[in-house]
Design brief:
Layout (H helix, E strand, L loop, with lengths): L1 H13 L3 H14 L1 H25 L13 E7 L4 H12 L6 E7 L5 H13 L3 E5 L5 H12 L4 E4 L5 E2 L3 H10 L4 E9 L6 E5 L6 H6 L7 E4 H7 L10 H12 L3 E12 L5 H4 L1 H18 L4 E6 L2 E6 L6 E6 L11 E4 L5 H7 L4 E6 L2 E3 L4 H9 L4 E5 L2 E2 L5 E3 L2 E3 L5 E3 L19 E3 L6 E5 H6 L10 H12 L3 E4 L5 E3 L1 H4 L11 H11 L30
Parallel strand pairs: 1-2, 1-4, 2-3, 6-9, 12-13, 12-14, 16-23, 17-24
Antiparallel strand pairs: 4-8, 5-9, 6-7, 6-8, 10-11, 14-22, 15-24, 17-18, 19-20, 21-23
Helix pairs in contact: 4-5, 10-12
Amino acid sequence: MLFPLRVIRRIHREGFRCIPEAIRFRIALHRQRPFLQTETALRQAEEDGYQAFIRRHEAPLSAPFTPTMRLSFLIPTYNTPPELLRALADSLLHQSCGAWEACFYDGASTRADTRELLQTLTQEDNRFRVTFGAENRGIAGNTNAALTMATGKFVALCDHDDLLAPDAVRCILEAAQDGADFVYTDEDKVSADGTHFFEPHLKPDFAPDSLRSGNYICHITAASRALMNAVGGLRPGFDGSQDHDLALRLSENATKITHIPRILYHWRMLDTSFSHQKAQTCANAAARAVADQLRRLHMDADVTVEELRVRIRWKTRQMRIVCVLWGEGDAPKLPMPCIRVRDLSAVNDLVRRTDCDAVLFLRAGLRPLDTDWVSELMQYTQRADVGCVGSALLDDRDCFRHAGYAVDVPGGAVSHQAGQWRYGRPYMLTDRIVRNVTGVSSALLMIRRDVFLSVGGFSPYQSDLRGADLGLKCQQIGLLNVYTPYARMAMDMRLSLLPPCLTQGAPKGDLRRFRQTWGEHPPERYYSPLFRPDGSMFIDLDRQEGTP
């Protein structure tokens, strides 16, 4: 009865419209069993090798460092099991840089052993500072009370049962002394007994659209004490997503945001974790936090929760769009004027002569999978802070050929999730959320005409490196490039025969031009240097050095 019950629950939740999708999934699942076996093997290999990787990665830096400020950890406690609190304290005592203090605010714990250990810590080291509150103010209230205790110029949030990597303090203070006033790091998870590390979260540099889709920043969040006080610390009323709300407000007010691409925090997985028990509550709180930010920034949009993910629908204005349909093959029915060309070699002059607000570049042989795909692309294109907008391209096996480009890889550019199955387990749901990327494919790309012309249009590439190059040029003038999962395209059989990534096999002249323009290491903000360079978004376990 288990399968029928699942079907009934899904129909009750989503309506009968879910049935065709469920049927397609079952058919695809049967076709993709060999692929799933390969993916499972890769995930198992990553898990098996990760313990050795994290030990190498955590090796303290050898270069000398002299701190000029103190980092205050804000740690709310309430009936914390003493063994977990002791483990956190030990990870602080083993820091490679001693310029820290731990500000514990205890919310009237009823466990005597918790209170006794807190008292003991203050006697062991005067950097442990404890205030026993008369009442439990909740996570937000207790953290804000800890903020009032802080004396450091920089402060960091820390849960009472997690662990810090040995270089956490040093790396954060290095960034702070370099002028950052908002800093965050990579993280992973640790088993309840503290012995097994898993699920590394390798984050992008600051990406506002990605942050609105979900709190990728999470741990460690650190900021100058002045900035933390200026935004008011944590706000009550966002339980379960209070860190997300804080990250949004810090990002609005920070002058320099720095991402440290090192795994410096271990999030302990306990059965009592709030986010596991109240997922819907967390998602609703996140949506309220995002809607609140958009109101503060006077950005007009509707914010909803769909499948526990935040979705933004920007209010659109009328735009005159012209489609440049290129290549050979069938074309979908298009709700705008269309100009058909064989290739994109002379398209810059064509756009210059066209009277429109935005241009949609669409490769023939693609079929829309989403009804409102044009509107989805347009609502991001119209934003003044956005350059290129694109979406997923799927082959006839439902595998990703494109989901946003990363650069600084051997082939010049590679797609996120390259070759991964649509129904698989994507890394951090990257294929299912709106996020910022370095570039998008010229096979499906919308851009405002004035932006396209201001950056010089497409450079003369014969391969899809033209899309990555255009994204980098937009990024260079301060614009964001956006991947949306709501304008997906399916490739016809002919296009599905192309290499797994559309930039794969680019002519040597294209690669040479790309390197001459952007150097050996182009500015990649959204694909971690700790990932494998093939776009699969599995961690590179062969990496030997301790830093990216």
